[in-house]
Amino acid sequence: MAKRRRLIVANWKMHGRLTSGVTLARDIVEKAEANKPLEFDMVLCPPATLIWSIGEAIAGSPILLGAQDCHTATHGAYTGDLSAAMFTDLGCRYVIVGHSERRSQHGESSELVAKKVEAAQLAGLTPIVCVGETAEQLQSGSTGEIIRQQVIASLPENLKKGQLVIAYEPIWAIGTGQQPAPRDIAAVHKIIRGALGAAGEIVPVIYGGSVAPLNALALFQEHEIDGALVGSASLNSDGFWAIAEASR
Ligand code: PGA
What we know:
Blueprint: E1 6-11, H1 18-34, E2 40-45, H2 51-58, E3 64-67, H3 84-89, E4 94-97, H4 100-105, H5 110-122, E5 126-131, H6 135-139, H7 143-153, E6 165-168, H8 182-196, E7 205-208, H9 213-219, E8 227-230, H10 237-246
Parallel strand pairs: 1-2, 1-8, 2-3, 3-4, 4-5, 5-6, 6-7, 7-8
Helix pairs in contact: 1-2, 1-10, 7-8, 9-10
Bound molecules: 2-phosphoglycolic acid.
């Protein structure tokens, strides 16, 4: 498969206050301005409270904005929740859905994730749908089947195939410093493409889980890996930029 323009996504999770978040975004914009035109797409997904301010900090730059989750409904009596359209209002282009931390800490099922995908696409956002196996599933040799099932169950029937990203994030690799070998990641990405059917040709499949400047080059040797979803290493502008540079 021909090499695509890669997608590098920062998942800040619940990190960043007003000053530190804006400073981090400005540092990244500075690097982007110095390296234009960029040979990759870069998306920052800060906590919802910072999206407006980060949007101002990146305005006019090639950096794009995303959210970390959204509700299934457009509006309604859902105290504390935020709809996909609310993020569109703030200039977001992407939204992460079905992250394993949402699945495990908030009991989100693949069926719920599929509804979020539908809501996100309806609002004009590109959902970044996360799937991944646990350490036990890896050990039992069921990774391929688990991932295939998760991909199918996490997507709605009326999917817009041109407006989707899948992130393969082995749960055991998130925040642990551990990672599958790049060729094993590539093998799972192929399984994901297979589960997507014809859409597998066009949907970017990115990898997340302990992506760091030191392992990024080896990851991006694999043409199957269309980009990275970066957690802790995205909180440092030099490190995050080094990962993006390695993707060229
Ligand atoms: P990590 O997180 O890079 O800190 O492992 C990745 C993620 O959870 O998206």
